[in-house]
# Entry
Amino acid sequence: MVTTKEILSSPEPILPGHAACAGCSSSLGLRYALKALGENVIMTIPACCTSVWQGPYPKSAITVPVLNIAFAAAASSASGVSAALEAKGKTDTTVLAWAGDGGSVDIGLATISGAAERNDNMIYVTYSNESYSNTGVQKSGATPPGARTTTTPFGRIGSPKNIALIMWTHHLPYVATACTSYPRDFIGKLRKAQQMKGFKFIYLLAPCAVGWRFPAEKTIEVGKLAVETGAHILWEAVDGDIELSPLSKKYRDPAKRKPLEEYLKYQGRYKGISKELVEAYQKYIDYQWSIITSLADIKK
# Structure
């Protein structure tokens, strides 16, 4: 059995010289993903940060075949690739749809839902920097309460969509959440998903130094704080059975979580935000925990 250490030391699937920002965790996440899934992968990428930083046609920093596709079409194009591979009898190629939160939670949600309903054979990863970072850091459906974006200059009002739970309601073989700051957890979930047939979905939190306004060298630390404060819950569901991942299981007790302010203090998008909006974020976090833990306590 291949160990995580061996996976991480495997040849680099992302070539140097690409155009990602300093501290970009989407490039880091894709590096982990392709190391985990191996060389026999075909990707679809809609309009997003990755479609830009990987390099303009006909060049690419990604060493596997890539279809750069329209904003809403990552899942539908991956469905076509998957169907073509099945028709040719090629069962050992992994189809990976890799999309940002704007192209998943908002613009691409209909095609993701359709592919999930059909249970098309692919792994769909939403790497979420919680905004439209590629086009100027506008609010997306994944932007958390209180966060400043260029379209919510005084802080986001309301709550984001929990796309991982939305996908869970599609009765899929596998749904999970992950974070780029915890590569072993992410790699383990990818490897598990790769062994299953059908539609597998992973929501990957990918902190954005530019959009969140923190120093580039703090990317890993900020991601860890998201988990340690309970703002991002790590869980997985196999055939609908939700289970907290070990990294989050210890934070089921709110007393063991770090204060939310520890997470927010590095992020310029929360600088000067009202106490009421910070409290709204904490209430949202507590509500998400109540949902996930309740579902985790239910076994088929």
